[in-house]
Amino acid sequence: GQQVMQIPQYQHVQEGEDFTTYCNSSTTLSNIQWYKQRPGGHPVFLIQLVKSGEVKKQKRLTFQFGEAKKNSSLHITATQTTDVGTYFCAAGGATNKLIFGTGTLLAVQP
Amino acid sequence: DAGVTQSPTHLIKTRGQQVTLRCSPKSGHDTVSWYQQALGQGPQFIFQYYEEEERQRGNFPDRFSGHQFPNYSSELNVNALLLGDSALYLCASSLKAGAGETQYFGPGTRLLVL
């Protein structure tokens, strides 16, 4: 079945440093969604990418969808302690069933 | 406007017991999906309900069953609980079951099976 892998599994940064997580799928994706889950919390929707090569920005967050629609990335510029959490990509299909990636846990040291 | 709500928040059961978890979707949403999230892993799709029918199912045994009511709320039932069923159970609602619809997750029910 379809698999979605994320790297790295864990990243520890100093506050103010940049952070990037990468998402790779074994198959071409209809769309890719990104979620953030704070420790002890539930996934919160961040953004959805649909078009090949699409780039979207939300303040310090930049999301990219690969040209082949098989990979995606999330880049955070100048991390803050409020960015702590696990970032998941999720592959969306025709019926909105989400296949979540393995997640990247971000720790930010003040 | 209430978001997705789930009950109970926490639950402790023993092996072999049965459990029922409940979900009320976000106002205006008609599709409910259930996910299981084991500790340290990403959520795994269990099934999706739309128009009171199971529309899609993930790779979960028949011990996992569900129901959707006319008001769009949903229940997840798990029979013959195993230790491995211990997890966070998440409900997500969306408008329609079509592709690309944003899914809103509830706070989850943390199930511990002893």
What does this structure look like?
- The complex is a heterodimer of chains A (110) and B (114).
- In chain A, 0% of the residues lie in helices and 55% in strands.
- Chain A has strands spanning 4-7, 10-14, 19-25, 31-37, 44-49, 55-58, 61-65, 71-76, 85-92, 98-100, 104-109.
- In chain A, a hairpin with a 5-residue loop joins β7 and β8.
- Chain A is globular and about 40 Å long.
- Chain B is built from no helices and eleven strands.
- In chain B, the strands form two sheets. In chain B, strands 2, 4, 5, 6, 9, 10 and 11 form a seven-stranded mixed sheet that branches. In chain B, strands 1-3-8-7 form a four-stranded antiparallel sheet, with no helix packed on it.
- In chain B, β4 and β5 form a beta hairpin.
- Chains A and B meet through β4, β5, β9 and β10 of A and β4, β5, β9 and β10 of B.
Keywords:
heterodimer; A: 110 residues; six-stranded mixed beta sheet; five-stranded antiparallel beta sheet; B: mainly beta; seven-stranded mixed beta sheet; four-stranded antiparallel beta sheet; globular
The count of DSSP E runs of length 2 or more, i.e. the number of strands of chain A, is 11
Shape of chain B: globular
For the largest interface, the chains and their residue counts are: A-B, 26 and 29 residues
Strand/helix succession of chain A: EEEEEEEEEEE
Distance between the termini of chain B: 37 Å
Task: Write down the oligomeric state.
Answer: heterodimer
Secondary-structure blueprint:
The complex is a heterodimer of chains A (110) and B (114).
Chain A: E1 4-7, E2 10-14, E3 19-25, E4 31-37, E5 44-49, E6 55-58, E7 61-65, E8 71-76, E9 85-92, E10 98-100, E11 104-109
Parallel strand pairs in A: 2-11
Antiparallel strand pairs in A: 1-3, 3-8, 4-5, 4-9, 6-7, 7-8, 9-10, 9-11
Chain B: E1 5-7, E2 10-13, E3 19-24, E4 31-37, E5 44-50, E6 53-57, E7 64-68, E8 74-78, E9 87-94, E10 104-105, E11 109-113
Parallel strand pairs in B: 2-11
Antiparallel strand pairs in B: 1-3, 3-8, 4-5, 4-9, 5-6, 7-8, 9-10, 9-11
